[in-house]
Amino acid sequence: MKLRIAAPALALSALSSISPLLAATVNETSVYLTVESENYSDAFTIKGLLNELSGPLKNGENAFSFSKLESGIRYNQFELALFIRNDYFAAFAPDTARLFYQGENNLPVDANSHYDIHLRLNNIQGKGIGFGYQLSPTNNFSLKPRLNILKATELTDGTITGSVDTDSSGSYSSQFGVNYAYSEDKLFERNVGSKPDGLGASIDLDAEWKTSDRLTLSLKVKDLFGRIRWNDAPATIASANTNNVALDSEGYIDTSPVLSGREINLDHTQKIPTRYYLTASTPLRDNLDLEGELFHIANLNFPRLHLKWQQGNYQLKTSLDTKAKALGISIGNRYCGAGIMSDSIDPDKAHSFNLNLSCQLPL
Description:
By secondary structure, the protein is mainly beta. The protein has helices at 46-50, 94-104; strands spanning 29-41, 62-75, 78-92, 114-133, 135-138, 141-166, 171-182, 198-212, 215-246, 258-271, 275-285, 288-297, 300-311, 314-321, 326-332, 336-342, 352-362. The longest helix has 11 residues, at 94-104. The protein is globular. The N and C termini lie far apart (57 Å). 35% of the residues are buried.
């Protein structure tokens, strides 16, 4: 049996750093629709994650995809939204990415090598409802908290740790431990029967403070204190090993591990990764602003620069992500907008891809 790594289903998901001008004003009722996407992988291309790790492999340790389709209504300071979302976050050792890549692409493993195995997966899919309220205690400060209630249907949450050693004769040995909960067992193909349902909640915060005519600070927080509670979720807590098993004549790996442990069902609490976007903006001249942004998730930091030009109700923004080496552009007015950011114009080579589409109709 071959071990497989789960890949995210790439949906169109949010990029707050290039959002167009679509905020409803106070004392206005409007309906809106947004399609949002933020995707990054340092080891694999985005396309490779969707196609069983095809394409080139780079040295890397992280991959994520945050996807949401949302529709809602804003009435004065109130916001009510319905959404569907797919979140995926993976952290792994470079050796782990290389081993899975070799297995998925029928490539021989490296002889006389030691592979460190560490993989942390967190994936959810579901739908929910959001309740937001815009606060403006002063003319220079605004805050919008939002409560999200999520009914989740797809679960992957856990870790694999261990090692694989190969020798020059074409043999290998491995030891690894598994501790993960799931709605579908992609590692050992356990028949889980009916899938579990999860119910959870998180908080979004959107704050803006105009400290002076020369500086505006904003902070967006996504999924603060986010948790999902799964009842009777399938889980595997086990250790496995394979010793002195020869590779085939072409050096390909196809493991049949001896598994000892428990395949159980349990109540499981899944933590939703929190994302932070901190932005500082200053005017360069009339209608032209420079923005510096820091996007933070887990142990990753993405510094970004934006140049924003505004003429009447229209806004044009160009963007640079220095970590992802990505360029972006967005255009919009108070009714609709679109933005894109990527590190490559060739979809087969992109390691970073973000897309934002949005429409708003006053009533």
